[in-house]
Amino acid sequence: MPELPEVETVRRALELHLPGARIAKVDGRSIAMRRPLDVDHLSELLPTRRFVRARRRGKFLLLDFDPPGTLLIHLGMSGRLQIGAPSRPRLAHTHLVLIFEDGRELRLVDPRRFGLADWLATEEEAHDPSLAALGLEPLDASLPDTLPPLFRARRSCVKTLLMDQRLVVGVGNIYAAEALWRSGMRPTRPGNRTSVTRLGNLARSVRAVLEEAISEGGTTLRDYAAPDDELGYFAVRLQVYGRQGQPCTRCGSELRAEVIGGRTTAWCRRCQR
DNA sequence: CCAGTATCCTGCAGGC
DNA sequence: TGCCTGCAGGATACTG
To answer: Rounded to 5 degrees, what are φ and ψ at A212?
Structure first.
């Protein structure tokens, strides 16, 4: 579900609502997620710590607490965080609940369980295997210089490369398609057969799309919402994702979709080359 | 090493 | 109406 703009929107909402809040209690049920969710373990570690800040690395959220330690969260496909009053009914598939001293709850809801919540002691963060393998942050101004050589070394198509978190982080199926349309690039183009100039332009498109989406609060397709229930309004600005069969807003020809790297990908055969 | 596919899980839309 | 199939915003284990 959430790509970088949604995760960044969640991060900002947490920083708006939670600083200083002290955890009184942890609730939930241990289940299998991307990593096993161990509620008993978290119940021992989290209470009496205060929320300090939320960081983001790619699509990962890192919630820092004092005394120091970090709750690592990934929302997978269907995960969301929700800040709620205790009186508010818990949604189905609420797996983890942090209960603060003031009564508010931070809930992790994830029907498909592709997400994760895992405690990282301060010294563990640098060695976490998921974090260690992550690539470039796409909002860095240097991306047009750093992305091209990585893509030029690969034979896979650029769409697959954009979604490979070891190369660039934060880009998923929606924003890969949007960035490619914006830079007039065919998703199936092999990385090693694309010029540095064009890859630099693609990098600029990635950054532009992500920043625009952040400013709209992300993309709500069906169930995404920020922790304070704000919806994302970038869906109305999508040019290609999910628009197969409809006309390209740039040239009018019909958008087509094909499965690339296991993911449905829509693009304009006329203006993306 | 690299590239491509299968897999984890639930919900929902569409076809019959 | 109800049942079945396929697909969905992701990451990773596996295969060749």
So the answer is: -65, -40
Q: Does the nearest atom of strand B lie within 7 Å of A160's Cβ?
A: yes
Helix (H) or strand (E) holding A160, with range, is helix A158-163
Q: Which of residues 205-264 of A touch strand B (CB under 7 A)?
A: 222, 261-262
> Within its chain, how far is the Cα of A7 from the centroid?
5
- The span from the CA of A45 to the CA of A117, in Å, is 13
Cα dihedral A83, A87, A90, A95 sign: positive
DSSP H or E stretch at residue A257: strand A256-260
pLDDT at position A260 over 80: yes
> Each residue of A69-78: pLDDT tens digit?
999 999 999 9
**DSSP-based three-state secondary structure for A66:** strand
The CA-CA-CA angle for residues A58, A213, A113, to 5°, reads 50
- Answer for A153: CB within 7 Å of strand B: yes
A105 as an active site residue: the answer is no
Exposure string of A113-140, with b = 16+ CB inside 10 Å and e = fewer, is bebbbbbbeeeebeebebbeebbbbbbe
Q: What is the pTM of this model?
A: 0.98
Question: Can you read off the two tokens belonging to residue A126?
Answer: 């640098």
In contact, A109 and A80? CB cutoff 8 Å: yes
